[in-house]
């Protein structure tokens, strides 16, 4: 299946695979997912997820732990389920206010 992201050294498919590193992503106040990733050898590092419907969904490309591409990792990151920041009225923010957990 060629629809999966499978990075290789120097972007050359004849060379060894290397992890995709997503560094410093900030996902804030998304109504659905903060981020969703399928593939393998994906590393999220130094990321922040706050006030999202679902912070992060990871879907493996293989059968853990033996298949190449079954590694998904989150390091040095923070998840905040719901903060006290309720947004502001106006603009395109039609989801102003406290979440359902209050």
Describe this structure in words.
This protein has no helices and 8 strands. It has strands at residues 20-23, 26-28, 33-39, 42-45, 48-50, 54-60, 72-75, 78-80. The strands form 3 sheets. The protein has a 3-stranded parallel beta sheet with strand order 1-4-7, with no helix packed on it. Strands 2-5-8 form a 3-stranded parallel beta sheet, with no helix packed on it. The chain has a two-stranded parallel ribbon with strand order 3-6. 13% of the residues are buried.
Model regions low in confidence, pLDDT < 50 over at least 5 residues: none
Mean pLDDT: 79
Largest sheet: 3 strands, parallel
Give Rg in angstroms: 17 Å
Count of alpha/pi helices: 0
End-to-end Cα distance: 43 Å
Question: Approximately how much helix is present in the residues?
Answer: under 10%
> What is the N-to-C succession of helices and strands?
EEEEEEEE
Biggest sheet: strand arrangement? 1-4-7
Strand content: 25-35%
**In terms of structural class, how would the helical and strand content be classed?**
mainly beta
Q: Judging from the principal axes of the Cα atoms, what is the shape?
A: elongated
What is the count of β-strands? 8
What is the element layout, followed by pairings?
Elements: E1 20-23, E2 26-28, E3 33-39, E4 42-45, E5 48-50, E6 54-60, E7 72-75, E8 78-80
Parallel strand pairs: 1-4, 2-5, 3-6, 4-7, 5-8
What descriptors fit this protein?
single chain; 102 residues; mainly beta; three-stranded parallel sheet; 8 strands
């Amino acid at each position: 299946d060629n629809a999966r992201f499978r990075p290789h050294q120097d972007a050359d498919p004849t060379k060894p695979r290397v992890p995709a590193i997503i560094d410093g992503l900030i996902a804030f106040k998304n109504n659905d997912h903060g981020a969703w990733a399928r593939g393998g050898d994906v590393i999220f590092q130094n990321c922040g997820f706050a006030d999202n419907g679902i912070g992060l969904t990871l879907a493996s490309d293989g059968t853990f732990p033996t298949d190449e591409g079954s590694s998904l990792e989150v390091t040095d990151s923070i998840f905040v389920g719901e903060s006290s920041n309720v947004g502001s009225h106006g603009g395109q923010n039609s989801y102003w206010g406290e979440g359902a957990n209050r």
